[in-house]
Amino acid sequence: MAPTSAGIDTSASGQDEDIVLTEEGLATLERLSDRIRAAQRQLDRLNDELRATIEELDATNDDLEARSVELQEAALRLELERHASKSERSRLTAVIESMSDGVAVLARDGSALVRNQAYADLIGADSDGRMDDENGRPLGPSETLEARASQGEEFRLVVTRPGAGGSRRWFEAVSRRVAAAGSRESTVLVIRDITDRSLRRTQDEFIATASHELRTPLAVLTGYLHLIERTADGAVGEHTRRALEHAQQLEGLIGDLLDITRLETGQMRYELEPIELGALVHEAVEAAAVLAGEQLIHFRRPGTVSLVDGDRQRILQVLRNLLDNARVHASSSGEIRVRLRRRGGWAEVAVQDDGPGIAGGDLERLFERFQRASSPTDPGLGLGLHIAREIVRGHHGTLTATSQLGRGSTFSMRLPLRA
Fold first, then answer.
1. Where residue 112 sits, what CATH number does that domain have?
2. Over the stretch 228-246, which tens digit does the pLDDT of each residue have?
3. What is the count of structural domains for the chain?
4. How is residue 141 annotated by DSSP?
5. Mean pLDDT throughout 142-150?
């Protein structure tokens, strides 16, 4: 029997063969077994790592899918926001273009991000934004509205620009800084034409000054006329009385001008006291009857008392104006009817005539400044009804008119009854 290279002896015994492992063979097998076990362990570790990697890849894939969905949703939102932003810009542009005020949005470099047509019309196409200050001094290049606004300066000021025929236009300019998220800082410049307002202020100042300046010489003139009237007779006396009538009429006109000034400047003051309106209407009717001539003024004083809180002289002024208006502008009316009644919490005085009436479109204009009831040749400045309405409003009441052509007019004053 000869040994094998692996240390295994083989021998024949009948038909069976016995395999005998030597110590060296056993050692070799153990080493192989150890290597196999080590390889198995490494394989198990690799298998575990592979499973972990697969799980991580699955998780990553899920995360990527989720992120893909989020990105798609974000892209959709951005697209919707882009369309919405475009729609908002279009809407904002339409609003700005519809404004009568001039609007410009200026960047810090002086470029115009937005300008509406009104802005171009107001500053003048060839003026490059250059205007004069309110005293007429030309503004230098660095003083122009756009130059100052582009530097981020905030202001509110009045500027002017020469107009046609030597006239001058007046403008109010307002500048405000704005900064939207994610955009560069800019300035909004708004320009408004205030020429009519400035002219009206100048007119009011002139009226106030002229009225005060006229009162003193007129008072002196009236005083001298009264002295002459006491001693004069015949033609001189008649001329003096006519001069006095015209002087008193002029006093009334000056009084109206002063009242307009007080109303426009908020200086009209009322001394309120309890007034029995029936007695005050009766007083006004008696005074008007003296001047009415053949016209009849009919007033039946009601039995009920109508107490209001008011300024006696101012309410009497309103009543006289309504009665004079009916007497002068409805001279063809044979009768003027005055009615006082209580309606709910109000006392209402109505003055009705049978004159030619007033067209419906002209009724509200009667209460505007310098509007006459009929022709421009009528006496007065067209201030009486405007002043009367403002006085009644100052007493928390109303003054209205109704009329039909050919059927006369009715002016109604309503005042709250005293609680």
1. 3.30.450.20
2. 888 877 888 788 888 887 7
3. 4
4. G
5. 87
